[in-house]
Amino acid sequence: MLSDSYLMWSRLAPTLFWFTIGILLCLTELFFAKNLARNYKLVPLITGINSIILSIFLFRTYYVPDWNWQITYWMGLSAISVIWLRPMLLKTKKSNIRDATEAKTIADILPGKTGKVLYEGTIWQARCNDKTIAIASDQTVFVLEREGNTLIVAPENLFHF
Predict the structure, then answer these.
(1) How much of the chain exceeds pLDDT 70, in percent?
(2) Are 152 and 126 in contact, with CB atoms under 8 Å apart?
C-alpha cells in the first residue's frame, strides 16, 4: 500500500512542474516579445497558458495520467490554440483613409518608385497605384490607401473624363 504522502506528491509534482513551465513561458513572452520574430509572437504566451491550464487539470483530477499523455495533451492543446487563437490576436491594423483625399506631389513619382507628397500638412512617401505611370511634381493626386508610411496615390487626371 502506498503512503498518503507519496500519493499527494505524485499528484503535486506534475502540477508544480506544468505550473512552473507555464509561468516561465509567459515570462518569456513578457521579457522577449520585442526580440521575437513576427512568426513567433504570442507562441510562448499561448503555450504557457496551456501549461497552466494543464496544471490546474492535473491538480483537480484524482488520476494523474502518464508523463507521455501529459505531454501529448499539452502539445495538442497548444497546437490547436496557436493555430486557432493566435491569428485572431494578431490581426493587423489597417488604417482607413477617407475616400478621395487630395495631396500634392512635391517630388516626381517615377513608375514603380516612391516620391514625396504633401498630405494634410505633412510630407509623406508616396507610390502610384499603377506602376507604369509617372507623376510630375506639383500635381494633385488622390490618396487611395496607406501601406505603413507610404501612401498609395492616383493622379487626378485619371478621374476626369
Answers:
(1) 86
(2) yes
